[in-house]
Specification:
By secondary structure, the protein is an alpha/beta fold. It is built from 14 helices and five strands. It is an enzyme of class 4 (lyase).
Length: 284
């Protein structure tokens, strides 16, 4: 094993980074080499975590997960911005290549990015450009937030609303819409994936809080604006599934008459799965 703090002049000059290397040695020894033998041969995370860059919010430790289970992207105030190629590339890789089934957007109380967006000070570019995206969330919920007199309670609610809006931004993306519809059409999938979860962390208590947002209800009429796929196209795919079912059964196959083909794919296809006898859970 290498010795990093050997008392030499070089070691003294680099003692901060050497302390990290020493802690790494202890970590490896504690977890055991067998763990890394398996970790080095596969990368199959179940979750994607979009979190704040704040040093107090470490994803694996908060979730009690070992390395390898969470694919992590972090930035100031856990934002999902349509021009952020870094995050969108990671999102595409996580969903289409790694096949993650759950995406967590996690904000936290006492968030410096949220506090900065609530102030009128100009922090300078590029940070000021980034904070503008957070200010847009405040504008969307201005009436509710301005109605909260206590500044700290207003901040905490802003943190929560920002997390929810970033989840909504995920639903707007092509990769999420396409993958959720594909998995909804797949009889072997129990739910449209990936699921989107809105969490908030409290650094004062250490606990994560699930905001329990019903995004099917929350999105409401926004589906008509942001949906990228034509529902009838997916009804046609469902018809092929029904044709396949009828070819293997003597009794008449169910028809799609009565299904509202102008509705969203998930709404219309719920009836299809009911006909097929496949139970699909809520996809939010």
């Amino acid at each position: 094993m290498p010795e990093y703090n050997d008392g030499s002049e070089y070691a003294m000059k680099n003692r901060d980074i050497n302390n990290i290397l020493e802690q790494n040695k202890k970590f490896v020894e504690a977890i055991g080499q067998e763990f890394f033998d398996g970790l080095g041969s596969k990368h199959e995370p179940k979750y994607m975590w979009i979190g704040c860059a704040d040093a107090r919010v470490p994803s694996n430790e908060l979730c009690g997960e070992k390395p390898g289970s969470i694919f992590v992207v972090r930035n100031v105030a856990n934002m999902v911005v349509s021009t952020d190629v870094n995050l969108l590339s990671a999102l595409q890789f996580a969903v289409t290549t790694l096949g993650v089934k759950h995406i967590i957007v996690c904000g936290h109380y006492d968030c410096g990015g949220i506090r900065a967006a609530m102030n009128k000070a100009n922090v300078g570019a590029p940070l000021s450009l980034w904070l503008r995206n957070i200010k847009d969330v405040y504008r969307t919920h201005k009436e509710e937030l301005n109605g909260i007199e206590d500044p700290e309670k207003r901040h905490r609610r802003f943190v929560e609303l920002n997390v929810i809006e970033q989840c909504v931004n995920l639903f707007k993306t092509e990769v999420i819409q396409k993958t959720r519809i594909d998995t909804f059409l797949d009889p072997e999938c129990n739910f449209p994936a990936p699921r989107i979860h809105a969490l908030v962390y409290d650094p004062m208590t250490g606990y994560l809080q699930n905001l329990n947002v019903d995004f099917s209800e929350y999105l409401g009429d926004l589906k008509d604006i942001y949906e990228l796929y034509n529902p009838p196209d997916y009804i046609k795919e469902a018809e092929l599934l029904l044709d396949a079912k009828s070819s293997t059964e003597e009794e008449d196959a169910p028809s799609l008459e009565g299904i509202d083909k102008s509705s969203s794919p998930a709404d219309g296809l719920d009836a299809v799965w009911e006909f097929l006898g496949i139970k699909k859970t809520d996809g939010s």
